[in-house]
Design a protein that fits this description.
By secondary structure, the protein is mostly helical. Among the domains are: about 5-50, no CATH class; about 70-105. It is about 85% helix and about 0% strand. It has helices at about 5-15, 20-30, 35-50, 60-105, 110-180. Helix 1 crosses helix 2 (about 20-30), helix 1 (about 5-15) runs parallel beside helix 3 (about 35-50) and helix 2 (about 20-30) packs across helix 3. The radius of gyration is 39 Å and the shape is elongated.
Length: about 180
């Protein structure tokens, strides 16, 4: 039966980390333990086989791809934490702004039940204002849709006409530029 201490000594010897006094201890142990001696012969043969086999190299760009993936994860984590921090800060700032306003409303005492009633009224007003703003945005967008579409079509037509003219001009100027560079 092989011993754990003998196996540790063998591993350190194979790794080249065994001090000279440990080497002597290993040799004494191998003389006394037949199981460890057999294990030592097999480990040395395996070590020679591994050293003689060719090393496989990673594919080209492997390290760059791994580092890019690590960098993407790091940026994603940083952006996520930053967004959460920003949201928390915005919530605290909004609380600091709106809570004093609620307490300063006329007829709103500091106790909780009137504050809850005021909160419901404030929420209803905010929903009404948001609806009015969204309706205004929709009306503005629908009024601008036709002129914006017309301007976009004119810009597209201009780009389609100007592109071949620009390419022709660049082709004519390119040989002249290369004649002076030589």
């Amino acid at each position: 039966m092989r011993s754990e201490h003998g196996l540790e000594l063998m591993m350190e010897a194979l790794d080249g980390e065994l001090p000279p006094d440990g080497r002597a201890e290993l040799e004494v142990h191998l003389e006394q333990c037949a199981d460890c001696r057999e294990e030592w012969v097999q480990l040395q043969a395996l070590e020679q086989l591994l050293r003689a086999s060719p090393a496989a190299h990673p594919p080209v760009g492997f390290a760059g791809r791994i580092m890019a993936r690590v960098d993407r994860r790091r940026r994603y984590r940083r952006a996520l934490l930053g967004g959460l921090g920003l949201a928390a800060g915005a919530l605290v700032a909004a609380s600091l702004v709106f809570l004093p306003l609620l307490w300063s409303l006329p007829g709103a005492p500091v106790d909780l039940p009137p504050l809850v009633r005021t909160w419901g009224m404030l929420t209803a007003r905010l929903v009404d204002v948001a609806g009015t703003v969204l309706n205004s945005l929709w009306l503005t967008a629908s009024a601008l849709a036709l002129p914006v579409a017309a301007v976009s079509l004119c810009a597209l037509a201009t780009a389609l006409v100007a592109s071949p003219l620009w390419l022709a001009l660049v082709r004519r100027l390119r040989p002249a530029a290369s004649a002076y560079s030589g």
